[in-house]
Amino acid sequence: MASFLDRLLNRDPDALPKNVRVDRALELVADGAQLVDVREQSEWRSGHAPQARHIPMGRLTNDARRLKQDVPVVVMCASGSRSRTAAAQLRSMGYQATSLSGGLAAWRMAGGAVR
């Protein structure tokens, strides 16, 4: 239940933070969050998380409709820079989205699957 202060400030205590570390991202995905990779096609082909949906950054506005609006979204890129922008864009469209800090490199180092 939201605290009085949260309600007063219109904050949702269950909302995702803007960025998450890889351990939290892995938990979110394991719990059913959608994983979106916003890297370019050549980057995607060089290796990606098997459960990720590929939506290059430039197509996000048009292709976000492929995502479920009521399921959290973890956005990844190579390092975390593009994913921060993409997550903010998704939040502005009504999605509960967060960016994976450290990107695919952090994902790999934490034992996240890559194919």
From TrEMBL:
PANTHER family with a match to the protein in the record: FAD-DEPENDENT OXIDOREDUCTASE, PYRIDINE NUCLEOTIDE-DISULPHIDE OXIDOREDUCTASE
Pfam families membership: Rhodanese
Signal peptide: none
Highest rank taxon of the organism: Bacteria
CDD domains (alphabetical): RHOD
Organism: Actinotalea lenta
Cross-referenced InterPro entries: GlpE_sulfurtransferase, Rhodanese-like_dom, Rhodanese-like_dom_sf
Domain Rhodanese: 29-115
SUPFAM superfamilies: Rhodanese/Cell cycle control phosphatase (SSF52821)
Name of the protein described by the UniProt record: Rhodanese-like domain-containing protein
